[in-house]
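Q: What would this chain look like folded?
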Amino acid sequence: MLEHISVDLGLDDLYLLDLRDIDPPPALGANLMMIIGTARSEKHLHVSADRFCRWLRTTHKLSPYADGLLGRGELRLKLKRKNRRARMLNSVGASDSGNTDDGIRTGWVCVNIGLIEDNRNAAQESMDQQDDDYVGFGGGSSDVRMVVQMLTEEKREELDLELFWQQALGRYIRKRDRIAKAGEESSLSSDGSSVSPDPGDVSPASPPPP
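A: My prediction, written as structure tokens:
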């Protein structure tokens, strides 16, 4: 998949984030792995996202959902309208300020690929679920949810998703370590208080008064 995104689609500066340890899981889903890549332009962004979704459907029989993607016909129509408006402005000696929302400059497409089965852990997972008494809705799954974030260079610098998710993962790891350390200290404290005293260490009772 990384090779297809880099070589065939032409996205640059790919970055892989492993967020499977975050608990509670992000809104995108549990067992999350994220790929971030940079598109060369707005048109390249939408064309690459569209081709990537088609590749996933035809090659891997997956059902991805692309949030922010403009379809081929929609993108072509919006580009025609943008060029027509630019020609009209030039004909009257005016220029486009660049602040007009033309519905094209989204700068960001999030492709949620969905769950991908992890065959390496399928057999062990089945054995573990048979041995453990599971309580809850459904069963624990080792399937990985893949999400590909495609952004233009300007949008990627603005959002800085790498830093955002690295900080979120760091906060979870620090919280997990604090909880584990507190549990160990509590366990040691309870073990020490439950030890019965040695009879030899008990001083004899004083004799009753005459």
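The first helix runs from residue 2 to 8.
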